[in-house]
């Protein structure tokens, strides 16, 4: 766990809960200056992020209520721009603009990216910047896949403040249709081979009778 994540997540009330439940000593070391800061995304993080076709995004309204939304798009639509910056094309949806309104008042944002087949996930905390109009027109070509049917309305850029690879415990294994296809292809090939062999044996038995 990087220090930057611990410094954000381990608030006084969180530390009090850890102390009460007996885990404070184990997590104390992650607040040490000797621990890696954990603000720069490396090759492993970049590869993981750009392999995803969706993520969960949390923002906070001026009333203090959190709002969690699933953002989806073509694989890799969340792009790593540099070691401290990620961004995505914000596609038109139901036009409620709850996340957009929240981010306009408080740019703090949290993402959870899931890899269900391999039971992996990464949490990212950052500060967002909404880019619209002519400025977005300059940025969107680098973020938007022209072959995707979605209509991009703006760009969302996020400066990474912290990230953490999270424990795989309790992550269910799930596969999308595309992820399941290689397994199904092998099963279809086996079924085809068995059907052919069954027909051959049936012909042999018929000829012998």
UniProtKB/TrEMBL annotation:
Gene3D superfamilies: Electron Transport, Fmn-binding Protein, Chain A (2.30.110.10)
Domain (Pyridoxamine 5'-phosphate oxidase N-terminal) ranges: 44-140
Superkingdom of origin organism: Bacteria
Matches recorded under Pfam families: PNPOx_N (PF01243)
InterPro entries reported in the protein's UniProt record: Pyridox_Oxase_N (IPR011576), Split_barrel_FMN-bd (IPR012349)
The protein's name in its UniProt record: Pyridoxamine 5'-phosphate oxidase
């Amino acid at each position: 766990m990087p220090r930057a994540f611990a410094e954000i997540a381990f608030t006084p009330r969180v530390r009090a809960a850890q102390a009460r439940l007996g885990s404070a000593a184990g997590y104390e070391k992650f607040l040490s200056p000797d621990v890696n800061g954990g603000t720069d995304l490396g090759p492993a993080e970049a590869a993981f992020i750009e392999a995803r076709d969706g993520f969960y995004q949390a923002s906070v309204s001026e009333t203090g209520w959190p709002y969690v939304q699933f953002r989806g798009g073509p694989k890799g639509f969340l792009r790593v721009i540099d070691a401290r910056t990620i961004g995505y094309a914000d596609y038109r949806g139901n036009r409620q603009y709850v996340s957009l309104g929240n981010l306009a008042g408080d740019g703090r944002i949290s993402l959870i990216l899931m890899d269900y087949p391999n039971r992996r996930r990464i949490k990212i905390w950052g500060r967002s910047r909404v880019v619209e109009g002519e400025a977005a027109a300059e940025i969107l070509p680098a973020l938007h896949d022209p072959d995707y049917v979605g209509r991009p309305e703006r760009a969302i850029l996020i400066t990474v403040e912290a990230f953490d690879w999270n424990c795989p415990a309790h992550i269910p294994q799930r596969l999308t249709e595309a992820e399941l296809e290689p397994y199904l292809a092998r099963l279809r090939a086996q079924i085809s081979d068995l059907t052919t062999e069954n027909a051959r044996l049936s012909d042999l038995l018929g000829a012998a009778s």
